[in-house]
Design brief:
The chain has a six-stranded mixed beta barrel with strand order 1-2-7-4-6-5. It has 174 residues and is α+β, with helices and mostly antiparallel strands. It has helices at 4-11, 33-40, 74-79, 106-112, 154-157, 165-173, and strands spanning 52-60, 63-72, 86-89, 101-105, 122-127, 139-150, 160-164. It starts with a helix and ends with a helix. It is 24% helix and 29% strand.
Length: 174
Amino acid sequence: FNGIDSVIKMSEASVTPAVTIYPQNGRFIERDSLLLEKIGEIEGINHIHSVIQEPIVIKFKGSIRPVVIKGVSPHYIQQTDLQDKIVGGGAYLTSPEGEDAIIAGYGVAADMDLEFRRDNPILLCYPDKNANRASLSALSKIESRLAGIFSYNQEMDNKVMYADYKVGERLLKC
């Protein structure tokens, strides 16, 4: 009623799509470059991004926390204002050494006490589809490093992490 909700919506407007396409059946859509090209020709379409968004669990130094991972292309960072929202570290999804890197929300980073150190990987965990029980040992894990910390608003800061699209694909294929 005092306009604060408008300020919150504006703060995440560049990373929240105006149009989202979901599959009619199932959870996934195969990326079709010809279809994406056709969609891109529609008047008013500025950018098209394939995003894998899934709930996962992260593990760091013995702490475990659920988050929402957004697997995005490197172009996503340049075409949104994500790099302007970085409050620590950098805005990249692959380290200069070629390692997987993540950009974490401020709340996630603070809660997990994440560090910019190569010797302390962050484990991105997703249920192994071949496992027959629910436990930490039944999770597929990908090691990643902290590249940066962003701050949009409390809701996003407390639950979202960005990773390379290929990391999202690898997690889901486990």
